[in-house]
Amino acid sequence: MRSAADDRTARAVIRDEALRLFAERGPDAVTVRQIAAAAGVSPALVVHHFGSKEGLRQAVDQHVLALFDAMLGELTGGRARDLYDPAASGSLAEAILTYLPPGSPVPAYLRRMLLAGGGAGRELFGRLFRLSSGMLTGLVAAGLAVPGQDPAVRAAFLLCNDLAVLLLREHIGAALGTDPLSGEGIARWAREMLVIYGSGLLASPPGDPP
Amino acid sequence: MRSAADDRTARAVIRDEALRLFAERGPDAVTVRQIAAAAGVSPALVVHHFGSKEGLRQAVDQHVLALFDAMLGELTGGRARDLYDPAASGSLAEAILTYLPPGSPVPAYLRRMLLAGGGAGRELFGRLFRLSSGMLTGLVAAGLAVPGQDPAVRAAFLLCNDLAVLLLREHIGAALGTDPLSGEGIARWAREMLVIYGSGLLASPPGDPP
DNA sequence: TCCGCTGCTGAACGCATGTTCAGTAATATA
DNA sequence: TATATTACTGAACATGCGTTCAGCAGCGGA
User: Fold this and answer.
1) Which residue has the higher pLDDT, B209 or B164?
2) SS3 for chain A, per residue?
3) DSSP code of B205?
4) CB–CB of B35/B18 below 8 Å?
5) Residues 44-63 of B with CB under 7 A from strand C
């Protein structure tokens, strides 16, 4: 698995192969021996570097959270304007598409973190919820949105729509015939989402422009 | 675990305890010995009745799908009118709340089915997507909604909002302080959802009634 | 009454797992 | 060059897993 011209440390190789396999099948379904084989090392070396399989899992968690932070940092730093642009509402999916190479195992790993129920997942959702709340507040302050009578629910609702394509990627892809995390899929999803956010989906009073 | 006045067959007890434990921790994290202990029988009896652990998992899958079918049957049968009532849009969560006793392991098991990626999950999502599409079509035919330019995405979007409270129940509950599958939580969520479906959340033109 | 069948158990088997450990090669330190 | 430290391995270990199997109790039909 490890290419000949690979000069990363064995530690990094093990960590990356674990990330890939964990994202693919879930940590419980992957054995230390499989990770070691994928990294081209002995099982004992995995333990030597990470203490235990649980230690490796935590190291991968930390690594992915750091990547996620870097992603969000670029998003809320140099491109902060986008956060207050309704046309960039699909921020999470777009961030993933922009900052991660195609085929990256990170989205699938983030999905598992969110769904596994551990402390890392709670932390991740907390950050996302605060981000969503802040975004809504910003939109309201900019006069671009209304807070509604229950802003917390509204922020959670927005976040869920962002997360849906991550959590249900396969199912949505099968139903629509397009991977919702591809460029085309994101565009399709965002277009519809913006229309609904803009004016809802119930029947307009007759005479309204479409 | 099995109460003294319990006259269900051991087979049913095993199946129900497996359902509960599978929903709680996931099938891979539950051992045959734990299921047997919870049901008050020997591990060998589990195999005797279901052939293998995998057989038991499939039996539980089938059982839950049957419960789900019965739920939807009542929903689209005697109360079909509700499907075309926008006020009943939170149909999945409400159905769960209405037809399942509080604390039932079924919602958590459905969640696992949807997320596990097996054939049963694909089947389940397919049914839900068809239901959502049909509901949207019905609403449009009744003049209560507009199909949008991409009805498939719109139906998937509606479905995702229904599923969000199921998939992210714990996180949403922690963020909002209310279990979104409780009566109060559903009401809170549905209220906000209906407002957004009704008129969106972007800033209204000045002069519009709130 | 005997028979066969189903429900059920305790003990055991084979296997895969995470982890340990003694030991070797390589690299840095002195 | 000598030494200490690190990177790494192969073999082994204990444990817990799903599963098997011989046999026991109870019960309805011949």
Assistant:
1) B164
2) CCCCCCCCCHHHHHHHHHHHHHHHHCHHHCCHHHHHHHHCCCHHHHHHHHCCHHHHHHHHHHHHHHHHHHHHHHHHCCCHHHHHCHHHCCHHHHHHHHHCCCCCCHHHHHHHHHHHCCHHHHHHHHHHHHHHHHHHHHHHHCCCECCCCCHHHHHHHHHHHHHHHHHCHHHHHHHHCCCCCCHHHHHHHHHHHHHHHHHCCECCCCCCCC
3) P
4) yes
5) 44-45, 48-49
Contact B197 A193 (CB under 8 A): no
The pLDDT of B95-120, averaged and rounded, is 91
* CB B13 within 8 Å of CB B39: yes
Of B114, B115, B188, the CB nearest to A153: B188
List pLDDT tens digits, range B131-165. 899 988 988 888 888 888 899 999 999 999 889 99
Nearest Cα of chain A lies from the Cα of B49 at a distance, in angstroms, of: 26
What pLDDT, in 10s, does the model give residues A119-173? 899 999 999 999 999 988 988 888 888 888 899 999 999 999 889 999 999 999 9
Min Cα separation A6/chain B (Å): 33
pLDDT at site A197 = 87
Percent pLDDT > 90 in chain B is 57
Mean pLDDT of A32-41: 97
Residue B195: which of A125, A148, A174 has the nearest Cβ? A148
Complete DSSP assignment for B107-158:
HHHHHHHHHH-SHHHHHHHHHHHHHHHHHHHHHHHTTSB---S-HHHHHHHH
pLDDT confidence of residue B6: 54
Distance of CA B105 to the CA centre of its chain: 10
| Residues A164 and A170 sit within 8 Å (Cβ to Cβ) | no
Partner residues linked to A28 by β-bridges: none
pLDDT at A209: 43
Q: Estimate in Å the CA B24 to C1' C22 gap, whole number.
A: 43
